[in-house]
Amino acid sequence: MSSDPVVRAEIVVDLAAVRANVRALAAHTRTPLMVVVKADAYGHGLLPVARAARAAGASWLGAATLEEALALREAGDTGPVLTWLFVPGEPRLTDAVAAGIDVTAHSAEGLDAVAEAVRRSGTPARLQLKIDTGLSRNGCAPEDWAGLVERARDGERAGTWRVTGVWSHLACSDEPDHPANVAQLVAFEDALAVATEHGLAPEVRHLANSAAAIISPETRFDLVRVGIAAYGLDPAPGHTPDLGLRPAMTARAALAHVKRVPAGAGVSYGHSWVADRPTTLGLVPVGYGDGVPRHAGNHAQVDVGGKHCPVRGRVCMDQLVVEVPDGHGAVGDEVVLFGAAPHPTAQDWAEACGTISYEIVTRIGGRFGRRWVGQEDE
Questions:
Q1: Which of 99, 140, 168, 180 is least surrounded, with the fewest CB atoms within 10 Å of its CB?
Q2: Confidence class of residue 182 from pLDDT cuts 50, 70 and 90?
Q3: Alpha-carbon span 53 to 31, nearest angstrom
Q4: Of these residues, 38, 130, 231, 358, which one is catalytic?
Q5: What is the three-state SS of the chain?
Q6: Average pLDDT over all residues of the chain
Q7: Which key words are in the record (predicted)?
Q8: How confident is the model at residue 326 (pLDDT cuts 50, 70, 90)?
Q9: Start and end residues for every CATH 3.20.20.10 domain found in the chain
């Protein structure tokens, strides 16, 4: 039984774990780190995690959207911040340029939007250029790269912006032997050569995400972007060395009801699980309305009092049912859905649900409370 207060359901984020993970990654890569805090820091809390990352030595923070990046500035963060997702016409692009946030362009339309934001703000932009080396998502197409670079250099000469970075993103870094990794590295190096030929001298060149930062040193360049690894989860299960990373998130609840059912009792909607013997069931008061994957039904496990207990039947909007050993578990007992071993982990849930740990921690929320522990002054 945990000594933590009884709550219906809460997410507990250990900021000491975040700091320890960032330091471990820095020691392993020996390269400056960008800690990626997009999507509310992968569900861990944007501002608390950002402060923890900076305290642990993160040189940069990465935020997908303008709103995320500006929230960092509004909270007092003054260090380098990169953002990369905006559409032309977004008014907050002007605010981001004025706040000294590095913004990313990967097309002529993107450069136009940044130029207009510079005009409106009266502040030269900090501009990074992204090349598509094979992910086929955002990023400039290789055949358009020279033109983008040339125009970016013209803008630099005109004082519209300073090109602070050139970067790309890997598609298969969690599979170190995948041929796409070498192909993308070569394409990135070719893009850097074109940038140099046109007179660009960016502050940072970056390609590696969490998996590549850990297992592919040739991709590190001037900066590595660590997302999931900073939160203590393995970006490439089966391929990464043990760096002592600690999962920072625990999702916990309290048993709301315990009862015996006879053999033959169907459990939850559709009776997708039927008891083959008299069974003790526990009701956990969270469901897919709180971000618990519906796919977890009949596949995932939770921890009740130190024992792994399987989810039985379909996960409902507000609740799920688990089987507990006879004589074990009482109303109010703590249930850990996932956390650090020996509890079930986010990776365990990912494998049970046919997804990745990123989705497990990022989608959990809803009516869960959230609490941060491990602050520097504790």
A1: 180
A2: very high
A3: 15
A4: 38
A5: CCCCCCCCEEEEEEHHHHHHHHHHHHHHHCCCEEEECHHHHHCCCHHHHHHHHHHCCCCEEEEEEHHHHHHHHHCCCCCCEEEEECCCCCCHHHHHHHCCCEEEECCHHHHHHHHHHHHHHCCCEEEEEEECCCCCCCCECHHHHHHHHHHHHHHHHCCCEEEEEEECCCCCCCCCCCHHHHHHHHHHHHHHHHHHHCCCCCCEEECCCHHHHHHCHHHCCCEEEECHHHHCCCCCCCCCCCCCCCCCEEEEEECCEEEEECCCCEECHHHCEECCCCEEEEEECCCHHHCCCHHHCCCCEEEECCEEEEEECCCCCCCEEEEECCCCCCCCCEEEEEECCCCCEHHHHHHHHCCCHHHHHHHCCCCCEEEEECCCCC
A6: 96
A7: Isomerase, Pyridoxal phosphate
A8: confident
A9: 60-222
The whole-number pLDDT of residue 5 equals: 64
User: What is the identity of the amino acid at 264?
Assistant: G
Specify whether 307 is catalytic.
no
| CATH dotted code for 249-373 | 2.40.37.10
- In this prediction, residues 223-241 reach a mean pLDDT of 97
Could you report the per-residue pLDDT of 64-82, keeping only the tens digit for each? 999 999 999 999 999 999 9
Rg value, the chain, Cα: 24
Q: Is 269 a catalytic residue?
A: yes
Q: Which of 42, 269, 288, 307 is catalytic?
A: 269
| CATH 2.40.37.10 domain position(s) in the chain | 249-373
Strand partners, 178: none
Distances (CA, A) of 184 to 171, 259, 277: 9, 56, 55
**Is residue 317 annotated as involved in ligand binding?**
yes
The pLDDT > 90 percentage for the chain reads 96
Look-up of token digits 């956390």: 339
**pLDDT score at 1:** 42
Chain centroid, CA 355 distance in Å: 14
pTM of the model: 0.94
Q: 137 a known binding residue?
A: yes
pLDDT of residue 378: 44
Q: How confident is the model at residue 88 (pLDDT cuts 50, 70, 90)?
A: confident
